[in-house]
Task: structure prediction
Amino acid sequence: MTRNHTSFAVTVAVTLLTLAASLTGQRRQDKWRIDPYTKNDPQLMAAAGYLNYGPFDFGSIASEKTSSKDIADALEYVNIIWIETQHFRIGVELPQWPVGSDMSTKKKLRAELTELKKVLPKVNPKTRRLDPWLRAHLTAQRMEQLYAETMTLFGVTDESFPQDPKKVLIGPKDTYMGYGPFLGMRDKYLLLVTEKESTHRQYLKKFIGRDSKFPQRWHFTDASSLVFACPTESDDFPLKHDTALHCALAFNVSQNLLDGFRYYAYDLPVWIREGFGHWNSRRVDGRWASFDQNEGSIADMKKLAKWRPYAKNTLGKPKKYAPFPTVAGWRDFGAISFNDHVMVFSRMDYLMSLGPEKWQTFLMTIKGRVDDQWRPDQRDLVGATREGIKKAYGLSFLNFDDRWKAWVKDTYPSK
Result:
């Protein structure tokens, strides 16, 4: 009896010790889930503008919603940090990144971290390393800032859009503004950034049904949300540098916001989308350009930081870039040469220089078009562009380039 009792007690003790060690190991393993800046405290999170750290809806497969947990389970060896803000659901898996000695990078980050410290007091604006959670917080801050700037540029607020999808007409003149509160989309904008290209491809295959190594913008039709997904380790679009990633997000997410404005029912002309993306990216930094491309047509990319002087010096070589009547008729990204990318950016730069009111008139003419039954109307978008250019700017397809060239000559530096 004594031996049996002793044997049982030892077995229980060993089992409990093993279980305790396992739980301790699990807690250590899951330590990365605890945000060092809020400690996952709901009040501190709310002060930072966060609704939660997941799980939450993140797209759909056909009519079946998927969640951040579904993605985390499928990518089980990847530590994705999830954050939901007012307008975004974000997943980022970014390694620690040294700030380095580049003065422009240090100055940019110092300003961003100083702003972030206002809502996350534990942030050190002078830090020499961005840890994974700090990079997640910066990403969330950058996306909400881009959203706010876009709303200002578009001349709208959250209240400009229907909170109830059944009530799609808003304003004294019953203006169509889409089907939901997120610039016209029913659900929030999505962002997924992973470190490895293999992880990115695994996500695309399982949750979007595409096998691609390239960054991807995608419309989840049933969920009524738009996602941008990208890896940071890529031979084609390397985004390891923190500012390079910021530029890529500005380029792609700004296009998602433009597409979602008054609901994403059709694609705007290529030059508008690409020009808007370049314009937003280059407001962050000119050293890391992004380029859209078709699956069968690789983008014409060059590493050139100073696009404005390059545009000015190329004006006198009309055979090296397409005239505006041709640009207005582009139907896919494969038609755009590097010089055309520069000139499309410059044309968008010119339009923006004429003020947000004119841009808003132009945008309302070409985006969110509906017929007399309030159904999306994508007929003759080139004609709509012609109408919008004339209505907003007093320009025609024939004199657009003359006015733009004169502005570039007076405005852009030569070097």
